[in-house]
Structures are given as C-alpha cells and as structure tokens.
Batch of 3 targets.
Target 1
Amino acid sequence: MAARAGGRSDTRLIVAMIASTVLVLVVVIGGTLLLERLRAPEADDRNLETRVQNTIVYSDADSGETFTYSLQGSWEQWTEAADAGAAEGWVGTYASGEDQVVYEVARFDTIDAAGSYAQSLVTQAEADGGTVRSSSDTNTDGTGTLWVVDTGDADTPVSYVWDDGRGLSLTMTGDEWSVYRMYAGHDL
C-alpha cells in the first residue's frame, strides 16, 4: 500500500509540474502578445517616390465608366509640409480630360505628427472660409481620418484632407467628382 501511495504522489507531482510549466508559458506568451498589441504603431517610413502613382484609375461600378488621372508635369516639393516637419512632401496635379486635381502628400516620422498636420490643414481651410462637410475614420481599427471640406472656391470647390493613420497626410483638391474618383481609385 505504501508503494502505491508514493506512486500516486509522484504522478500528482509530475502533473502539477507540467501544469505549472504550461501555465507559465501561457502567461509569458500571452503577456508578450498583449504588449505587442499595446505598443504604439510606428509610421510607415517607406520613401514616397516608390509609393506615389503617376496614374490613378477609377472604375465606376454603376456606369462601368473608367476615369484615368495622369500626373501632369512632375512632382514638386511641398514646402509647407517640410516647414511643418514632414520627412518629405510632394505636390502634383493630376488630370483626366478637363478635370484637374491638386494632390499633396507628406510623410511624417510619427503617426501623431501626420495627424496633427492634417488637422492643421482642416483648421486652415476653415479659417480661409471653408466648411467641413464631414469627417470619418478611414481604417477599421479607428485610425486615420478623412475630412471633406467645401473650400468656398468656385474653381476648386472641394478638398479631401486625409490622415491615413500610418504617418501620411494627403490633400486632394478639385471638383467634387474628380476628387472623389481620385480618392477612391488611389492605392498608397
């Protein structure tokens, strides 16, 4: 009987040790995964030259019509963005027939800096007589914001100001449908 009782005791000890080891592993791995999720996301630091497209195509699902916007001329430095601390900033004009859209894009070293800059563009548009028509999150995780601004300018009546939630600030300005098509068709 004594040997049998000791055997049970050894088995229980082994089971307890295995259970303790598994519990420690679960806590360590779970804690590591939780810390990864809680760590602040970093801004995308890829150079814009490799990311900005010279042609943007939008296909209207309802009409089947395709709109192709091509860069007119070359990219110029966006000095206002650089002055605000952007790592790089570019301005270009896209056209599809008679429709033109001014496209400004800036990359910042931090996500917060890009968001603050986009917000400052909206604030400036309002100070210049524009009206924010709408704003909304652009990513499923609640990051990024798109503001649609009525500029009050007859030639360029709408501006989309976009903080992509990954370190970029973009502005597209032109007529309503051209700006919408550019936003919907671009992949940055």
Note: Residues 1-39 form one domain.
Target 2
Amino acid sequence: DLDSRVKLQVGLCRGKKLYDKREDMARRTAKRDIERAIKEQNR
C-alpha cells in the first residue's frame, strides 16, 4: 500500500512562562471587571 499516505504533524509544546500567566490573568480580570461595569450600568 505505497499509494496511501498519511499526513502527520508532530509538535513540542512548552508551558507558559510565569510572567505570561500573570499577564494573562490580569487581562482576564480587567475584561471581567469591564463587563461587570457595563452590565451594572445597563440595569
């Protein structure tokens, strides 16, 4: 079966660095606070 071929993708992943995690958490918290403020304003 030389006619059938398989496409294979191999990757090596590294975890996020600590500063990346902190930045991500800060961004998420800010977004959540903004959403909450908009929600409160619409009431």
Note: The first helix runs from residue 18 to 42.
Target 3
Amino acid sequence: MSPLVIEEICLIIENEHKVQLAKYGSPLILDAFKAKKIIADRYSYTRPDISPLIGKSVVLEVKTSKKKLYIHTYKRTPKASKEMRNNSCNVSKITNTYNGKIVPEKAKFVLFVFKEEWEKTIFVFKTGVLTEEIQGYNGLPEEAVKDKESLILFLDSWFESTGIKYKVDKLDNNLIKGLVGNGQSTEKKKY
C-alpha cells in the first residue's frame, strides 16, 4: 500500500456551507495502518455562524494528491451535492487573538493576571465564567461583570492581599477597547 497524501480537508454542512478545516503547505502523508491526529486551524467564530449546524448532515471532503474523498459522518447523511463538490469554501473563519490566545466570540472582558514568575490571559464572559482558574476559582459573580468599573472594584478587593497584579480590557465585538487596573495605562491597543 502506498501512503496517502492529504493536501486539504473541508467540511460540508447541510449541503449549504463549506468550511476549510485544514490546508497543508507541505502535504500530510498518511501511512497504512498508522493513526495520525488531524487538528483543524483554530478560529474565534465563523460567518455565517455554523455552530448550530454541527452534528447534523456533515460530510468531510478530503483532497488528496490523486482525488477528492467524501467521508460521511453518519450512515444516513446525504451525499454532497454536485454544486458543493465544485464550490470553494463559502464560510469565513475569523481569528482574533490576544496575547497569543484565541478570543472566544462571546467574551466580554480579557483579564491579564500576573505575579512574580507566572502570568495568565483569561477571558471573562458576561455570565462571569472564566476560561481559566484564578486561585481555584473559574467564575466571578454576575454583578461583578456587569461593567468595567464593577469588575475593577471586585478584582481590587479580591487581589488586594495576594500580590496579584492585573490588567482588564473590555472586548467589544472581540476588539480591545482599553487597559485598566492596578494603576495600569488606559491607552488603547490595536490587535
């Protein structure tokens, strides 16, 4: 058996949307009887939003050096239509990063905490849920995240005796609005 060379992997959803999962600059070579982990490129969100459609009628389109393979995720998944096979990707993946991390679409604030030898970039959602733990907690009270001033007051009282310093950035449509916290600069950042 000769190895299979993969150049690109796309996802066809509901025979309407086609999104590129991965495109390889140097071809991905699969050897027979060996497993290979394939990871999609990370992104913040898609336009149009395909998250409610995932898990329904999904077909993987795998472009190899010889031909395109269509892999059905479920037995009863309909075949990819001729139009979708010939169309290029019609879903845009938008990737916003902050400090090297992907910004989740529904994040309200970004919190950068640091103390001596460690630092964390944490995203805060409007419900108070944190993407990472701080001192064993992964959530804040909902009233503390209703606006930037409330969040700063809460964090000042929480970190007062711990020596933890922080910066808070407000996210508006995943764009950074400005830095505030522990005497930090309020200048605007562009990312």
Note: Helices lie at 82-86, 148-159.
